[in-house]
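Problem 12. The chain below contains 93 residues. Write out its predicted structure in token notation.
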Amino acid sequence: MRSMYEPGFDYDAYVRELVATGRYDDEGDVIRTALRLLHDEETIRTQRLAELEALIEPSIAEFEAGKGIPIEQVRADLDERVEAARRRRDAAE
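Solution.
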């Protein structure tokens, strides 16, 4: 089953330009290539999201088990690191 898609004015001109270079045989070739790239990008995004979730999951489990660090402590530690970095930067100037 064939479908007709209108990419819009800006993309339509770009597609014609790509075909004119000779790199692509026709507009369908450009669209197929674009969809293939989009599919690859979405596949990579899905894989990366799954990897990130796998990395985060143990931390969530620890937090739910009561092993988390209070946000006040995290903020204090971060403030100390930022201040130390400022002192190093100021000393280097």
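Discussion. The mean pLDDT is 92. Students who got a different answer should revisit the alignment rule from Section 12.3.
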